[in-house]
Design goal:
Ribosomal Protein L13p, Chain: A; alpha/beta; 6 strands; four-stranded parallel β-sheet; about 140 residues
């Protein structure tokens, strides 16, 4: 019995829309990461980029459960002494909800060039309008 190995040339990519309105941020990010990696396809191969394009709409309406809005922080460092910056997730979700969704999905992808290529296929929009109507995306229900 032979094992099927997907090739980059034989992959067909579809466009999916995920609506984040009223859903937890983490659950939306898990679904987006699964679609970006291609784990929903029967021809999934871990070392081949066989995922689809994902459009996340209504990022500003994503929900943080529990006390994450006050207790969870987004931290980044400038590289200089004392350059640690902290932002509460409540403020991050108000000011840059697209960025919050992107870093949630990025944390669920591989930390190599494969994950970087998969992240390029993610489009996140604050409201329900998006610029990718020409690609004829399907609403993902899963």
């Amino acid at each position: 019995m032979s094992t099927y190995m997907a090739h980059k040339d034989t992959i067909t990519r579809k466009w999916y829309i995920l609506d984040a309105a009223g859903k937890p941020l983490g659950k939306t990010a898990v679904t987006a990461a699964t679609l970006l990696r291609g784990k929903h396809k029967p021809e999934y191969t871990p070392n081949v980029d066989c995922g689809d394009f994902v459009i996340v709409i209504n990022a500003e309406q994503a929900v943080l459960t529990g006390n994450k809005g006050e207790q969870k922080f987004y931290r980044h460092h400038s590289g200089w002494t004392g350059g640690l910056k902290e932002t509460k997730y409540r403020i991050l979700m108000q000011e840059k909800p697209e960025f919050a969704v992107e870093i949630a999905v990025k944390g669920m992808l591989a930390k190599n060039s494969l994950g970087a290529n998969q992240l390029r296929r993610l489009r996140v929009y604050r409201g329900s309008e998006h610029k990718n109507a020409a690609q004829k995306p399907e609403v993902y229900v899963g």
